[in-house]
Amino acid sequence: GENVEQHPSTLSVQEGDSAVIKCTYSDSASNYFPWYKQELGKRPQLIIDIRSNVGEKKDQRIAVTLNKTAKHFSLHITETQPEDSAVYFCAASRFGDYKLSFGAGTTVTVRA
Amino acid sequence: AAGVIQSPRHLIKEKRETATLKCYPIPRHDTVYWYQQGPGQDPQFLISFYEKMQSDKGSIPDRFSAQQFSDYHSELNMSSLELGDSALYFCASSRNGGRVGTGELFFGEGSRLTVL
Hints:
- The complex is a heterodimer.
- Chain A is an all-beta fold.
- Chain A has strands at 4-7, 10-14, 19-25, 32-38, 45-51, 56-59, 62-67, 72-77, 86-92, 101-102, 106-111.
- By secondary structure, chain B is mainly β.
- Chain B contains no helices and eleven strands.
- In chain B, strands 2, 4, 5, 6, 9, 10 and 11 form a seven-stranded mixed beta sheet that branches. A four-stranded antiparallel beta sheet of chain B has the order 1-3-8-7, with no helix packed on it.
- In chain B, a hairpin with a 2-residue loop joins strand 5 (44-50) and strand 6 (53-57).
- Chain B is globular and about 40 Å long.
- Chain A binds chain B through residues 31-32, 34, 41-46, 49, 51, 89, 93-105, and chain B through 31, 33, 41-45, 48, 50, 55-56, 58, 88, 90, 98-102, 104-110.
């Protein structure tokens, strides 16, 4: 099955700085890569996703890049704000599957 | 907009007891997923249903069973509960043929199970 690795496990940044989280996946057939944000005790919420036919996608302060050859994808958050503090999960799936495989999560803390 | 509804939100059980969690997907969503999330861990896929049929199975213990009903709601039944079953259980739903790659997963607020 798919194995997703995520780094770093914790990330502390100064407000206004950028945050980058990286994930690698094992199944070369995976073609859907969402990112979820989860606040303590809350449900995971999709913040951005990318499909394998695209190398980069941006939504305001959030961007995701995908390198299919190297089997890794990254989340970039620019101009971080305190409300960006949360646990971020990357995930991967193969078209036709009915599940997502999650990375272990990155706890992001934005210092004011 | 309607979201995924889970009940109960909190549940406390003793070891060896049985628990049932319910999930009501977003209207017109045809696929339901169950995930288990332990403290400080990532969500672990348990099982999914597409059009009332089991579509995939993950790390679900044999003590657990689930089904999707004709109205598309789903129930997760857990028997012979163990301390290690204490976790947050999320249900998610999607549409567009139930294929993850074609539709976003919408998560419910979760059901927190505590086994004493």
